[in-house]
Design goal:
mainly alpha, 26 helices, 74% helix, disordered N terminus, disordered C terminus
Length: 477
C-alpha cells in the first residue's frame, strides 16, 4: 500500500513539474538543426536535445543560445537568451550576451537596459563597464560614458578606461584635457586607434607636425577591443567554417594546442581522404594545410612535414601545400627544392602576391639578387604597398648597388609603418650611399627613437662616418 501511494505522489509531482515547465518558459527555439554543415548541425542537435531533457535549466538553455549566436543564428540566439534569463535570472551572462547582439544593430537604448540588468547582477566585471562607456559614447551621453570609464578604471581596466575617458573629453571639445591622457597613453599603448585619436587631438590643438606623425601611426586603425573572458566562453560552441577561422587565429596568436584541437575535430567531418575528391575537397585540403602549419608552430616538424606530404600526394594541384612545404624546406636549407615548390604554386595560382614574395625571398637567400628583385616587383603588382615585400625589395636593391631605388623602397616602408626601426636603419644606409648625409642622419635619429637594434645602429653609424670622410668639405665662410 505504501508503495502504491509513493508512486501516485511521484506521478502527481512529475505532472506538476511538467505543467510548471510548460507554463513558465516557451519551448526551445529550433534553428540550424538541418544545416548542410554537419559539424554545425550535430552540435546544435546535441544541445537542443539537452534542453529537451532538462527544460528547466537556464545554463543549458544559455549554452544553446551561445551556440546559435556564434554560428550565425542571431534571432534564435536572442529568443534563447531571453528564455535562459527567465529560467535563471541570476546569471550575468544571458542579459550581457543578449545586450551585445542588440548593440550590433545599433539598438543602444535596449542594449543598455539589458546591460544594466547584467551589472545589477555583477557590478564588478570591468569589461561590462568599458562596454557601457562605449555604448553611452555612441549614444552621445558623454557624462555617463565618463562615469562608466572611471568605474572600469577602478576595476583595473586602466589603459582601455583611460582611452575611453580621453574619447569622452574629445566628444565635448576638451582637447587639452584629452591630450593629458593621450600623450602618456600613446607612448605605452601601441595601438593604431590610440595613435589616430592622439593625432586628432593634436590637430585640434594646432600641433600639426606632431599630428601628422601620430595619424601616420594610426593609418590602419580599427576600433579598440578589450579582453572579455566571459564573452570568450561562446567560442567553445563555434563550429563549421567559423571554427576553422577561429583555429587559424589561435594558431597565429601562439595558442597552437587549442587550434590543433579544433582542426582535428573538424577532420571528423572533412577527413583527409576527401582532399582527393572532385567535390568537397577544399575544406579537407585546407584543414590538412592548417594542421601542418600548426604542427610546425608547435615545434613538431616531423608531423608537419608528414601532413603536408600526404596532402601533396592526395592533391598535388593544391597551391597552399606547395607553399607550406617550401617553408619547411627553407628551414632545412634545401632552397632549390623549396624554390621548385614555390614555382609550382605560382603556376597553379599566378596572381598570388604571397607566392611571388616567397620566391623572391628564396632567390635572395641563394644570392640571385636580380631574380629576387624581379620576383618582389611581381609580388607588388598583386599586393601593392605590402610592407614586407617592399622591405625585401629594398634589400635586393642594396645588394645590386641600386641605392637610389633602395632609398625609395625603404622610404615607402617607413611611410606604411612609421615606427618600423629596421626600415629607418636601411633607409639611412641607402641615403648615406648616395651622399645624402643630412637626411641619413635624421633618419638614423628616427631609427634610434623607434627602438632600433644597437648593433644595426652602430653599423649604420660607422658607414655614415666613412661616407662623411669621403665628402668634400664645406667652403669656409
Amino acid at each position: 500500500m505504501q508503495t502504491v501511494v509513493a508512486i501516485a505522489l511521484a506521478s502527481l509531482l512529475l505532472g506538476a513539474c511538467s505543467k510548471f515547465v510548460t507554463d513558465s518558459v516557451d519551448e526551445p527555439v529550433d534553428a540550424g538543426l538541418d544545416s548542410e554543415d554537419q559539424d554545425v548541425a550535430e552540435h546544435l542537435a546535441a544541445l537542443f536535445q539537452s534542453v529537451r531533457t532538462v527544460p528547466t535549466s537556464g545554463t543549458i538553455r544559455g549554452r544553446l543560445a551561445m551556440a546559435y549566436e556564434v554560428n550565425g543564428f542571431r534571432e534564435a540566439a536572442i529568443a534563447t537568451y531571453e528564455q535562459a534569463s527567465q529560467l535563471d535570472p541570476g546569471d550575468f551572462r544571458w542579459p550581457y550576451f543578449h545586450a551585445h547582439l542588440l548593440a550590433e544593430d545599433g539598438e543602444y537604448e535596449q542594449a543598455l537596459e539589458l546591460l544594466d540588468q547584467a551589472l545589477a547582477i555583477d557590478g564588478g566585471y570591468a569589461p561590462a563597464w568599458l562596454t557601457r562607456g562605449s555604448w553611452l559614447l555612441k549614444s552621445n551621453r558623454h557624462l555617463g560614458a565618463m562615469y562608466a570609464y572611471r568605474r572600469a578604471s577602478e576595476l583595473h581596466a586602466s589603459a582601455h578606461a583611460a582611452f575611453g575617458r580621453a574619447q569622452s573629453l574629445m566628444a565635448v571639445g576638451e582637447f587639452r584635457d584629452a591630450l593629458e591622457i593621450l600623450e602618456p597613453l600613446a607612448a605605452g599603448f601601441d595601438h593604431p586607434y590610440v595613435h589616430r585619436t592622439h593625432g586628432e587631438a593634436l590637430r585640434a590643438a594646432g600641433r600639426l607636425d606632431e599630428a601628422r606623425t601620430a595619424m601616420a601611426r594610426g593609418r590602419e586603425a580599427q576600433p579598440l577591443a578589450w579582453p572579455d573572458e566571459r564573452r570568450d566562453q561562446r567560442n567553445a560552441h563555434v563550429r563549421g567554417h567559423a571554427s576553422y577561422m577561429l583555429a587559424k587565429e589561435l594558431s597565429v596568436s601562439g595558442r597552437v594546442d587549442e587550434a590543433l584541437a579544433i582542426l582535428q575535430r573538424l577532420q571528423q567531418h572533412h577527413p583527409e581522404e576527401h582532399c582527393s575528391r572532385e567535390e568537397e575537397f577544399f575544406l579537407a585540403c585546407n584543414l590538412m594545410n592548417s594542421l601542418s602549419i600548426a604542427h610546425d608552430r608547435a615545434g613538431r616538424p616531423v608531423e608537419s612535414r608528414a601532413t603536408v606530404q600526404r596532402g601533396l600526394d592526395l592533391r598535388p594541384s593544391f597551391a597552399p601545400f606547395h607553399l607550406t612545404i617550401a617553408n619547411l624546406l627553407r628551414d632545412e636549407r634545401d632552397l632549390e627544392t623549396a624554390l621548385n615548390h614555390v614555382e609550382q604554386a605560382i603556376e597553379l595560382s599566378p596572381s598570388s602576391g604571397y607566392a611571388h614574395e616567397q620566391r623572391g625571398r628564396l632567390l635572395f637567400g641563394m644570392d640571385r639578387y636580380e631574380d629576387a628583385k624581379a620576383a618582389f616587383e611581381s609580388a607588388l603588382q598583386f599586393e601593392p604597398g605590402k610592407r614586407t615585400t617592399l622591405f625585401y625589395l629594398g634589400l635586393a636593391q642594396i645588394e645590386l648597388s641600386a641605392y637610389d631605388d633602395a632609398a625609395e623602397s625603404f622610404r615607402r616602408v617607413t611611410e606604411i609603418e612609421p615606427h618600423f626601426a629596421l626600415g629607418h636603419v636601411f633607409l639611412a644606409r641607402s641615403l648615406a650611399e648616395v651622399g645624402r648625409i643630412d637626411e641619413a642622419r635624421r633618419t638614423q635619429d628616427q631609427a634610434r627613437e623607434s627602438g632600433g637594434s644597437p648593433a644595426e645602429l652602430r653599423r649604420t653609424e660607422i658607414r655614415l662616418r666613412e661616407r662623411e670622410g669621403n665628402e668634400p668639405g664645406e667652403p669656409s665662410g
